[in-house]
Amino acid sequence: MEVTLKMLLIVCPLVFLAGLVDAVAGGGGLIALPAYLVAGLPPHFASATNKCSSVFGTTVSTLRFLKQGRYHRRAAAVSAVTALIGSALGTRLNLFLSEKALHYVLIVLLPIIAVFLLLHRDFGLESKVESLPPEKLTILSGGIGLALGAYDGFFGPGAGTFIILAFTALCGFDLVTASGNAKVVNLCSNIAAFVTFAFAGKILWVLGLPAACCSIAGHYVGSSLALKDRARVIRPMFFVVLALLLARIAWDLAAGI
Predict the structure, then answer these.
(1) What is the pLDDT of residue 232?
(2) What is the torsional sign of CA 92, 94, 96, 102?
(3) Which residues, in sequence order, are CB contacts of 136 under 8 Å at separation 6+?
(4) Cβ neighbours of residue 154 under 8 Å, at least 6 residues apart?
(5) Best exposed site among 3, 32, 92, 132 by fewest CB in 10 Å?
(6) Pick from 32, 16, 12, 13: which is nearest to 190 by CA?
């Protein structure tokens, strides 16, 4: 497939924006994947090439969070392993069940999450994870990875955002550490998908590699904002991601997908 200048001009700026959003609050795929589709890529090539760009960007932001120590080793490791298992199960489930039921659940759930964040302005400002026994933290982290890994495999959009929210709400992590944990989980799943797509020959490298450079830049800027300004940047970005996800689901339902 021939890559034109027009395709690069559509994809690269939007992938940069997606990387910035993803590094802060997750959900970058809600911007990046439509960019590839608008540029004219068939769905499978769009998904594959998106993984090519996102895996490099996610690596950069993950390493920056790890370097700053803004993650929890036990929680990140356990949830990364169970997320891989959950993703495999979710992918298989997708072969047998329709996503429409999940659409209806999310279209009710997303406004509730937004209202919760508006009412709880101190959400994720301070870490409370120290009060959790290690065994309970392990079980909760494993459950988060398994459940949201299954969501990622079954449906996908917004998985990173939900992982951050779950780590904060259920385990008591502050938003920055929860985001660092989520980066580790997302990186593992992205690498697995990237390798699969690469061996299947579905990645359009001529477009994917320039987009990867833009994704790296976006993730670098986004991770800098998240690490510097912490919840002041992360909380508002959640509303952007939730609005994008709600719009995506409403569109899918209206289109009869």
Answers:
(1) 79
(2) positive
(3) none
(4) 90, 91, 93, 94, 97, 99, 102
(5) 92
(6) 32
What pLDDT is attached to residue 257? 57
Number of Cβ atoms within 10 Å of the Cβ of 10: 17
Q: Which residue in the block uniquely carries the two structure tokens 């997708």? A: 94
Distance CA 231, CA 228 (A): 9
Which tokens go with 167?
A: 């780590």
- Which residue type, as a one-letter code, is found at position 73? R
Cα–Cα–Cα angle for 248, 252, 257, nearest 5°? 150
Residue 49: both structure tokens together:
């090439």
What is the model's pLDDT at position 188?
87
Q: Which residue has the higher pLDDT, 98 or 8?
A: 8
pLDDT per position as a tens digit, 72-121: 999 999 999 999 999 888 878 877 777 788 888 889 999 999 999 988 88
DSSP code at position 130? G
**Tokens matching residue 63:** 């390493």
Q: What CA–CA distance (Å, rounded) separates 18 from 27?
A: 8
Residues 27 and 245: beta-carbon distance below 8 Å? yes
Let me know if 40 is exposed, middle or buried by CB neighbors in 10 A (0-12, 13-18, 19+): middle
- Specify the pTM: 0.88
Could you report the per-residue pLDDT of 67-82, keeping only the tens digit for each? 999 999 999 999 999 9
